[in-house]
Amino acid sequence: MMASTRIIRAELFTRLPESLHHCGEPTEWVRVTRPGQRLHSFLEGPCFDAQGRLWLVDVPYGRIFRIEPDGGWTQAFAYDGEPHAIRRHGETRFAIADHRRGVLLFDPADDSLRPLCSGVNAEPFRGLGDLAVAANGDIWFTDPGRSSLSDPTGRLFRLDAGATEPRLVLANIPYPNGVALSADGSRVLIAVTRANAIWSILARAPDPVFPMAGVHIQLSGGLGPDGLAVDGAGRLAVAQAQAGRAYLFDRYGDLLADIRTPGGDWTTACAFSPDGGALYIIDAQNAGIYRADVKDIE
Fold this sequence. Notes:
This protein is mainly β. Helix content is 2%, strand content 49%. The protein has one helix at 28-33; strands spanning 6-9, 11-15, 43-48, 54-58, 63-67, 73-78, 83-89, 93-98, 102-107, 112-117, 119-120, 123-124, 131-133, 139-143, 154-159, 167-173, 176-181, 187-192, 197-202, 214-218, 224-230, 236-241, 245-249, 255-260, 267-272, 278-283, 288-293. The longest helix is centred in the first third of the chain and has 6 residues, at 28-33.
């Protein structure tokens, strides 16, 4: 399969300006996950708003950035937290998966930030990774903590629209990371980083105790899949961490393209443009945002 794969070279769209580089001391997140390093940023979790602007977060320094269509950056908000992903929640607000603080709701109109849920059964989450918002307002989110193949206890939750207590869906995942819904909303796709695979379950599984989970795509190389994105045609984009690339699959899980970035290896997340014609890929290692034309790939 890989031998005949179409290879696309992404181009740099924009990069975090030096004026927005963090110059202070490393945070606890940096000390634990990147021992001995001093990071100026670690970008994650992008999404587009109704105006075609790209929003993304800076994990260790609690910053939310907005990128204009011309590539200009604005620090829209900063707070004491570790945001891993940001997604549109309605027309103007955003849901945030915060590694430390849980699921938050951010409204840029008044810079308000409030918790939606911070734990389950009176216990805090282990450390959130990503989230996806369904058309009906349900929020699916991953809670990987420090799980792995040797401790496959990462979790997937669903916070029903209007609820304050999340539902535990899966509790046996070796580091669930990115999460996305299929184009029709019927399936949930989970990036299982430490197993180098994409799992799939029904969004409304008939068995609420042990929903049937299967391997949608088995990958290899790099660390494993990180961020996911699905477009209106059902194509799935996968940012392959520590591999300097993203993969593009059709709705059946067949590989369409291998998209290489010319920067570092830490391809952490991706997002389709609102019309699905372009894929934007984040490289957290060099704070670069790369763009690839994917409109004719099917």
